[in-house]
Amino acid sequence: MNIQATITLFSSVIAIFFIGFIFSRKKTNDASFIHDYYLGGRSLGGFVLAMTMTATYGSASSFIGGPGVAYNEGLGWVLLAVTQVATGYFTLMILGKKFAIVTKRYKAVTMVDFLKERYQSKAVVLLAAFSIVIFLFSAMAAQWIGGARLIESLTGLSYHGALFIFVVTVLLYVTFGGFRAVTLTDSIQGSIMFIGTLVLLIAVVISGGGVTSIMNDLREINPNLITPYGSEGQLTASYVSSYWILVGVGVVALPQIAVRAMSYKSTKSFHRALIIGTIVVGFIMLNMHLIGVFARPILPGIEVGDTVMPEIAAHVLPPWLAGLILAAPLAAIMSTVDSLLLLVSSTIVKDVYINYINPDASRQFLKKMSMTITALLGIVVFSMAVQPPELIIWLNLFAIGGMESAFMWPIIMGLYWNKGNKYGALASMIAGIISYMILDTAGFEPLGMHHVVTSIVIAFIFYVTFSLFFQKRIRSA
Amino acid sequence: MEQQDYRFKIAHREALIGVGLALFNFVWWFGFAYGLGSQDVSDYQYVFGFPAWFFYSAIVGVVIMAVLVFIVVKFFFVDVPFDEEVEDAS
After folding, report:
1. How many CB atoms lie within 10 A of CB A441?
2. Contact A34, A317 (CB under 8 A)
3. Distance from A351 to chain B by nearest Cα, in Å?
């Protein structure tokens, strides 16, 4: 459809990955392979840490899905999206120094490592590994689809062609690059997104004739668009507030976020990451979703919500600039997929295979196995993404909610409550996952809140009750 | 677990600060959004073209949090060393 935009899009993506690749090459020779491939050798500086958190979390759901919903729902959805500013500081502050100190002491490389050392239970490890694989598959499929939609609407390729291009690029990169390469490219993408959303927002405001006139147009289309309640008034205060749990504070429990919270170099970089992260997340979330709302009067009648972002960019910007700016979300999606792939493969290789099947595997063998599994996983997800659901955001939110219900309390209580034990952790994970699945299938939202809130409350009760109940058995054992 | 580590005391305090910030953030966000936003649309006030509820809750809210985090980290967070393993080994 648009050759100029296509060329800039792909050359920027290639450039970003090339840089990450070169830099990661230099350092991965010494040190232990597993440690380095999955954790970057615990050496992230403040800026890189902030950016990699932002890029990992603010991926397809925010960049492709989110603005699409904002387009349909109006300012109420932007209000909901800014709850994510809490993720910028809350996750890092809560896991904070304690998580870094404890995981270092445990020599933990993944979140499952932490659970293993903390609870000393095979059942906890296997259940955790199992839920990571299940839920991250949903999350990855969401990213895959987002990436493909973006390429599709910008280049005019068919969805399947776009999906194919996307997958090949990601697999090549992640299979050879590992964690450090991923976090490095994250910083570049984070920076492009930061500037890119600002440029796009300004262009959209100009194209719409200024904020006042856009607001007037929105009010004429549907007055509800400028209220906090959504286009049909269906976004109630309690529903939107429950997103504080789902996409705000609950993000603490996501394995891909937690692994980053143990990978920083010093408390100095941690402090810098807090400040930079809060600013960057707040800024990008606000801008991105505002763009979605502002696009409504400028380009009315877009039917597939996921294509709002690429279409509005192509509409208000010169083609080469649209390509350059869209390279950032595309790269962000890729980096999210990369991190998720790495996580699933580290779960299988490190947490299950090395722990329980073959602790003495040779380094060479592990290296081959990690890469093979990473590549295999990619292919499986690809086949899942071939038949995409309507809006990727719901798929992504499902996965996020599921992992939060499972891991919230085993991580937080494991960190801060000495009486917490493996019985509590197991009961909490099982209760959290099952209640989440049931509520999700039934579409039941108690008290008008997202069902993740109920599941997290249930998981908490189970954690505390079972921990206390079996306390004696732990002591006497 | 080894509770006597002095760094844990610092870590616990900072985690509590995080909870405090999030609570404040929520109250600010909720108060302006639903306090001002629940009026009839025809009664809305506008700031820089945005409805007032949105301007204060979302835009000012994000800026305030960024400033607060900056202040808190600069003045209340303490640097601690991470290299205990090295000492243990030697």
Report:
1. 8
2. no
3. 23
For A101, name the nearest residue in chain B, comparing CA atoms only.
Answer: B82
- Cβ within 8 Å, pair B15-A274: no
Burial of A346 per CB tally in 10 Å (0-12, 13-18, 19+): buried
Closest CA to A284 of A341, A221, A328: A328
Residue B29, token pair as written in the block: 């966000």
Nearest to A98 among B8, B37, B62 (CB): B8
What range does the domain containing A120 cover?
3-390
Query: Which chain B residue is nearest to residue A287, measuring alpha carbons?
Result: B59
Domain count, chain B: 1
- Average pLDDT across each block of 10 residues of chain A; the chain has 477 residues. List them in order: 76 76 58 57 70 66 74 91 86 88 84 90 90 81 80 82 82 65 71 86 93 92 91 87 84 83 83 89 89 92 82 88 81 74 79 80 79 80 72 72 90 91 93 89 80 92 93 69
Neighbours of A213 (CB within 10 A): 13
Number of domains in chain A: 1
- Pick from B53, B61, B73: CB nearest A82: B61
Asked if residue A436 is part of any domain, the answer here is: no
Beta strands in A272-391 (DSSP E): none
Q: Report yes or no on A452 lying in a domain.
A: no
A250 touches chain B (CB under 8 A): no
The CATH number of the domain holding residue A83 is: 1.20.1730.10
Whether the CB of A283 is below 8 Å from some CB of chain B: the reply is: yes
The verdict on ipTM greater than 0.85 is: yes
From the list B11, B54, B66, which residue is nearest A98 (CB)?
B11
Residue type, A327: A
Copy the structure tokens of residue A477.
């054992």
Predicted local distance difference test score (pLDDT) of residue A33: 59
Instruction: Give the 3-state secondary structure of residue B46.
Output: strand
How many other C-beta atoms are found inside a 10 Å radius of the C-beta of residue A475?
8
Domain assignment present for residue A451? The answer is: no
**Which residues in chain B touch residue A244, judged by CB atoms under 8 angstroms apart?**
22, 26
Please report whether residue A462 resides in a domain: no
Using CB atoms, pick whichever of A75, A83, A100 lies closest to residue B82: A100
H-helix or E-strand containing B47? strand B46-47
